[in-house]
Amino acid sequence: MFTYTSGQKEALRLLSGRARHCMLYGGSRSGKSFVLCCSLVARALRAPGSRHAVIRRYCVSARNTIGADTLPKVLRSRFGNRVRYRFHRAESLFRFANNSEIWLIGLDDGERADKILGKEFATVYFNECSELDYASVQTALTRLAQNIPPLLNRAYYDCNPPGKNHWSYRLFVEKCDPVSRKKLPYPEDYAAMRINPDANRENLPAGYIEYTLGSLPERQKNRFLAGEWADDLAGALWNWTMIDPYRVTEVPELISTVIAVDPAVNSGKECDTTGIIAAACGRDGDFYILEDRSMQSSPVVWVRRVIEMYHRLRADRVIVEVNNGGELFSALFASEDDSVRVEPVRAVRDKFSRAEPVAAFYEKGMVHHLGVFPELEQEMCAYQPGIYTSSPDRMDAMVWAVTGLAADRRRSSDRFILS
Known about the structure:
Elements: H1 6-15, E1 21-25, H2 32-46, E2 51-56, H3 59-79, E3 85-88, E4 93-96, E5 101-106, H4 110-116, E6 123-126, H5 134-141, E7 154-159, H6 167-172, E8 190-194, H7 208-213, H8 218-224, E9 254-262, E10 275-282, E11 287-292, H9 299-312, E12 317-321, H10 328-336, E13 342-345, H11 351-363, E14 367-369, H12 374-382, H13 393-411
Parallel strand pairs: 1-7, 1-8, 2-5, 2-6, 6-7, 9-12, 11-14, 12-13
Antiparallel strand pairs: 3-4, 4-5, 9-10, 10-11
Helix pairs in contact: 1-2, 2-3, 9-10, 11-13, 12-13
C-alpha cells in the first residue's frame, strides 16, 4: 500500500497552502519531483479539461526523466488502476480520461516550445529550475492563465540548490525580484521547503546516502546531500562584491561603444546561446555594460539584432569572435548592412587568460553594470577556470567587449580623464 514519507507529507501541505509559487529544493533523490508530480496529477484529475506543463531545459531530459520515469511511477504507485490515461509519445503529452493534459516541454526545442506555450495552463512546473534562465521562466509564467475552477493557478519549482547568485535563491529565499533586486510586493506568494535524501531513505538503495552521496567532494556533498545553497565559488574569477556595489542607473558621457558577439558553435533547433553584449567606455575612464541581448537563433537572426543595436546605440564597431565562423560572419554583416564596422577577433589564448585582465578591472571597481543582468552575472560568478562545464557565452562576449574598449583606452589615453 502506498504511503507518503513524512517529508513528502510536509511538502504536500506546502503545495496546498496559499502560496501560488512553491519550490522544493534539497539533495539528490529526496523525492522532490515525485511529490510535485503527485500534486500535478491530482490537480489534473480534480479539474476536467485542465492543462499542466512540465518544463525543463532540454527536451530529452523532460521525456526521459519525467515522461518515462517519474510520471509513470507516480501513476502506477500512487494512483494504481483507478486512473485511465494515454501517453502520446510524438507530442510528449499525457491525456487523461477527463480530457485533462500534462505536457512535457524542453526549452531547447524552440519551435515546439513556442507552439505549446501558446496554450494556457493551470499549473506550470519548472523541473530542475537551476538549469533555467529567469527570462525563460518569466515568459512561461505568462501562460499560467487557464481559468479552470476549482483550481488556483500555481507554479511549481524544484532543484538541487545551486549558488546564492541564482535567481531561485533571490526569489524564494531573499524574497526579492531577481532582476530589479527590489523586495517582492507579495512575498507570501512564494513558499519554499528543503527536503533531503534522508527523509526519503526508505525508498533509496542501501548505502546510497552514506556511500554514493557521502563520498562526493565537500562542495558537491553540501549541494546533493545536505541541500545547501553555495556561497560565492572559491576560485571563481568574479563574485558579487565585485559587481553589486558598482551598479549604476545612468551612464556618464560615453566616448567609445562596442557590441561584442560570441557566436554559438552550432546551429539549428538545439543551438547554443550566442552571447551579445553592448558596452562602452566613459569619459571618466571606466567601463559600462549597457545591454545583454544574447539569444538562441540562426546567424542571420542574431546578425540583424546586432545591426539594430549598432545603429540604436551609435556603436563604433561590432567585435565578433571568428574561431568557429571564419569569414562567414563578416560576410553576413556585409550582406545585411555594409555600413556596420565589423572587427573579427580570434581567440589565441585560453579563456582564463582572456578573462583575467577583465576581472581585474571589476576588482578595482572600474566596470559598472547599467542595471542588472541576471544570466550574465550568473555565468560570471559561476565561472571557475578548468571546472566550468557549460559554455559561458554571455561572459565571453562581455570579456571581448571590455578587452576591446581597454585597447581603445590605451591607444587614445589622452582623450580620457583617468582616475
